[in-house]
Design goal:
heterodimer; A: about 725 residues; alpha+beta; seven-stranded mixed beta sheet; 26 helices; B: about 50 residues; mainly alpha; 2 helices
């Protein structure tokens, strides 16, 4: 990519000047790079229709649709905005969303994957050639022919392994420098020792050379690494796409003129306009306008809060009814949203202590192998006083015990399990998340936005007078407030017809009013309609001088919430509900779902502290949450899940992201995780059995390169097949 | 056994060609959109003349 954009270097400056000038001119106009997400495309017809549609726009320089990622990348003239392109594609009949090109930083992970793939290809090529030469040696090539084959093998192996094994050498070196042992240390040692003894044997025209074994080892281990990398790259790119979908834009007001800017360009003191339904990009203070604020993502409270001039607002709150103008008081890293990061950092230090199954196995395995190889070297040296025999046998022991199958044991299983869960709408972000999920015995749920959708539902429709309902329906049709929308939905669903009303005005922050039969009718907050506030979320209808009627609301349950809780309880797990919402709301939901332990009005720090207390009592906690107030708790828990609708900060802090709307997959995920962990332990056992059989042969000096190659291939294949049995 | 003098270089060269071709495909982004490329071949947009 970058290479083709740079002008080609030329030896003669005169020759180069003309084409460079052209390139320079073309480059002076920077092209707009626009990325769109196209979730509904599925066939070649979609591709050509969209590409043709985009290319027809004269300002578009090039457009390419990627069907695998369901994305279009467009290069266009600088004045083209993403919104225009989105509208263009939408006009062709496809759903389209703008993606923040800055967040889609796929190239870095891509380069790492490509690098691994290249090394894998080199190792594969070299090991096939060397294996062919080895087969002729095993089948009886002798004397000069054998030596020639060994020399050719050496010539192929040495450069290939120097290139392909680089990731192992690097990891081993960094582990050794910190005084630790990991899987890569025995791998590197085995490779180096095998090469050295094989070269030495070849020089002395000996019979046994392990070039093929060293290469096959590198190939199998690289295959494991590549699988592992791919699994995580897929999860990472899907997570990046979620983030990129929320393009952080803000409307800045300068001298009365509105200007769309990136949220990152805002400065303290800027005047920002926030339309109804928009999210606060920064912390600030309201200058003009009244409205109501939805704080559920920050605090878990479902009841909207009144907002008027002079009041402070925090980034992440949603403006519900009227447009607001705010003056920024804190931007970027200083906003309350980002201050939460400190809490998260403290909570995360606990999780770093987790040792993965692979690391645990390596800790047992690496010293054992080295001691065994060292002892057999020493034993044979003392027995024969022959350096060559002793070194040969030590190399054979290292090669045979080398964790070929161990290196595949974990990635093969996690690839299979992550793929299965991804199809069910779960994104496994962290490499050890599955292992940790399998150990969970306590599940903590957040309420608002996690177990519930965060959208209210009218609860007392049957208890209300029909006239009141039709009046309220007429009024609520004129408002986009979530409570009004809930009334509209419930009343229309029940077959009510809106009453005849006139002079409808929405009073942002308070409610809606109108005239009907000469009376003023108000639908809105308790204080504005002269009603007594009640504990639940409610809005009130006041007709003329009459008594206000309460419309009460409850949060709608997220689909699958009931199933998830039931499945988890059936699996013998303790389920706890922790919310920042009021006690009656939390108690009602807990009773509805059959959750016995619950905690209401919890502050963010309370949640994290409670989870730490549970952890200290020996519980392995799974935290499921979506809000900013859950972030610290998500990081403190043993493993954490957040829905795709969660705030970015919460998604970053959690190990697993639910892509769909359905919570029911959590129960399945726990079961898949348990069986995946069982397969991993089985794989470790299989690898150990091969070692137990082959090691005595190696120590006794009976291992030939043929036996080493067989043991390695068969154990790797068994382990991979076992991983595929995962259900 | 003199045939080995020809066969071994030939096999190495053929294998090396395969490796070089694979590295070329990786370097030229041919694995970025496997699903899309599998379907693009069915489109008849550029059958009469190549894409400009």
């Amino acid at each position: 990519m970058t290479a083709s954009m740079r002008p080609a270097p030329s030896a003669c400056p005169g020759c180069a000047a003309a084409p460079v000038a052209e390139v320079q001119a073309a480059r002076d106009l920077p092209r707009a790079q626009i990325a769109l997400s196209l979730p509904t495309i599925h066939c070649s017809g979609c591709i050509s229709k969209i590409e043709r549609g985009l290319d027809a726009d004269p300002r578009v320089h090039s457009a390419r649709v990627n069907l695998t990622l369901k994305r279009a990348s467009i290069e266009a003239a600088p004045e083209v905005t993403a919104e225009e392109m989105r509208a263009l594609v939408q006009g062709l009949g496809y759903e389209a969303h703008e993606l923040d090109a800055g967040t889609l930083n796929a190239s870095a992970t891509d380069r790492a994957g490509r690098d691994l793939l290249m090394r894998l290809a080199v190792a594969g090529f070299a090991s096939m050639n060397v294996m062919l030469l080895s087969v002729s040696v095993w089948s009886g090539a002798e004397a000069a022919t054998r030596d020639m084959f060994h020399w050719i093998s050496a010539a192929i192996t040495l450069p290939a392994i120097a290139f392909a094994g680089m990731p192992f050498y690097r990891n081993a070196w960094s582990a050794l420098r910190q005084g630790r042992l990991n899987m890569d240390v025995p791998i590197t040692l085995a490779i180096v020792l095998a090469l050295v003894t094989s070269l030495w044997e070849t020089m002395l025209s000996g019979a046994h050379a392990y070039f093929d074994a060293a290469l096959a080892l590198t190939f199998f281990l690289l295959a494991g690494r590549y699988l592992d990398h791919r699994t995580r790259a897929i999860a990472r790119s899907a997570a990046e796409e979620l983030t990129a979908l929320e393009v952080p834009r803000a409307t800045r007001v300068v001298d009365g003129a509105e200007d769309q800017v990136n949220a990152s360009d805002l400065a303290v003191g800027d005047i920002i306009r926030i339309r109804a339904g928009g999210r606060m990009p920064v912390d600030g203070e309201i200058v003009t306008g009244t409205s109501e604020l939805d704080r559920s993502l920050l605090t878990g409270e479902t009841v909207p809060v009144f907002a008027g001039p002079g009041q402070a607002v925090s980034a992440g709150e949603v403006n519900l009814t009227g447009p607001l103008t705010i003056r920024a008081t804190a931007v970027g890293r200083d906003t309350s949203l980002h201050r939460m990061a400190d809490l998260v950092a403290i909570a995360e230090s606990g999780r770093a202590r987790y040792t993965s199954l692979a690391d645990g196995a390596a800790k047992l395995y690496a010293p054992g192998v080295h001691i065994l190889a060292g002892l057999s070297f020493l034993g044979w040296y003392l027995y024969t006083w022959d350096m060559r025999t002793a070194l040969n046998i030590a190399a054979a022991v290292l090669i045979i015990t080398c964790p070929c199958a161990l290196g595949l044991a974990v990635p093969a299983v996690t690839t299979a399990a992550s793929g299965r869960l991804f199809r069910q709408g779960m994104l496994i972000k962290h490499e050890t998340a599955l292992e940790r999920l399998a150990q969970v015995d306590t599940v903590v749920f957040d309420k608002t936005g996690t177990l519930t959708t965060g959208t209210p539902r009218l609860t007392n429709l049957d208890a209300l007078a029909p006239e009141a309902v039709s009046l309220a329906l007429a009024l609520s049709q004129h408002s986009s407030h979530p409570l009004a929308r809930a009334i509209t939905e419930a009343a229309t669903g029940a077959g009510f017809v809106p009453a005849e009303i006139r002079d409808v005005t929405e009073v942002p922050g308070y409610g809606t009013r109108c005239m009907h039969d000469g009376h003023e009718i108000r639908l809105g907050r308790a204080g504005w309609t002269g009603a007594q506030a009640v504990a639940e979320t409610a809005t009130f209808l006041k007709v003329g001088k009459g008594h206000p009627v309460a419309f009460t609301f409850a949060d709608a349950l997220r689909p699958g919430a009931e199933d998830a809780v039931k499945a988890l309880i059936a699996q013998g797990k303790r389920v706890i509900l922790m919310s920042g919402d009021t006690t009656p709301a939390v108690a009602a939901l807990a009773q509805r779902l059959g959750i016995r332990d619950w905690l209401a009005e919890a502050l963010p720090a309370d949640k994290a502290a409670r989870i730490e207390a549970l952890t200290e009592d020996g519980a392995r906690v799974l935290m499921v949450g979506d809000g900013l107030n859950d972030t610290a708790a998500l990081a403190a828990a043993h493993v954490s899940i957040s829905p795709a609708s969660a705030l970015d900060a919460a998604r970053v802090a959690s190990d697993i992201v639910l892509l769909g709307n359905d919570l029911g997959t959590i129960g399945t995920a726990c079961r898949t995780a348990t069986s995946a962990t069982r397969r991993i332990t089985e794989n470790f056992r299989i690898a150990t059995v091969y070692n137990v059989v082959a090691v005595p042969l190696a120590v006794a000096g009976l291992a030939t390169p043929l036996i080493a190659a067989l043991a390695m291939s068969i154990s790797s294949i068994t382990v991979s097949l076992n991983a595929l049995r995962l259900r | 056994m003199n045939i080995l003098a020809y066969l071994i270089p030939i096999s190495l060269i053929l294998g090396g060609l395969g490796l070089a071709a694979f590295i070329y495909t990786v370097k030229s982004n041919q694995y970025d959109d496997p699903e899309g490329d599998a379907r693009r071949i069915l489109s008849d947009d550029w059958d009469d003349h190549p894409k400009p």
